[in-house]
Structure prediction request, 96 residues.
Amino acid sequence: MSRRRGHKGLAVRPGGCHIPVPLSNPSESVQCKPLEVQVGDKGIERAIKHLKRKMAAEGILRELKRRRHYMKPSIKKRKKMSEAARRRRKRQKIEA
Prediction:
């Protein structure tokens, strides 16, 4: 993924590629630095583990899961409200 664009004319920031940034021109795109992992003496399993850790830190896995299925805006709003209510209940339970 060398070139990506965000939503509604927002580009994605190089380095932290998943964070949208407003663009001066919506048709321009931003180059993202590819994730690289060195495979050394410790083997391919260790390199895969490091790659997964880097992808999680960048938010790539979360973004892939989110984009896997289309969610209607009304359902997205309802889900966001229910998550907020759940966090609120959890916070009240901890305070009590």
